[in-house]
Design a protein that fits this description.
The chain has about 80 residues and is of the alpha+beta class. The chain has a domain of about 45 residues: Double Stranded RNA Binding Domain (2-Layer Sandwich). The protein has 1 helix and 3 strands, in the order βββα. It has a 3-stranded antiparallel β-sheet with strand order 1-2-3, covered by helices on one side. Strand 2 and strand 3 form a beta hairpin.
Length: about 80
């Protein structure tokens, strides 16, 4: 069994719902009302996405996480 490491982007919408997405796995995202549930759900989503990618014989991209910066812009 191969071990993968993925960066997960977590945000929170205006209603307080947490959103998680994995940029290197297209379509891999989920949401939850709390972080504990979000972490459980994104792990499940990643596992499902990996199953699909492996069935398609696609190479899973591994990227090194560098950082995230939030920038405020007035428009």
């Amino acid at each position: 069994m191969k071990i993968y490491n993925f960066s997960v982007v977590i945000t929170q919408d205006k209603d307080g719902v947490f959103l998680a997405q994995v940029p290197t796995l297209p379509g891999c995202h989920t949401q939850a009302k709390n972080l504990a549930e979000l972490f459980k759900r994104i792990q499940e989503a990643i596992e499902l996405c990996l199953e699909v990618e492996n069935e398609k014989k696609h190479k899973i991209q591994q990227e090194k996480f560098i950082g995230v910066q939030q920038i405020e812009v007035a428009a």
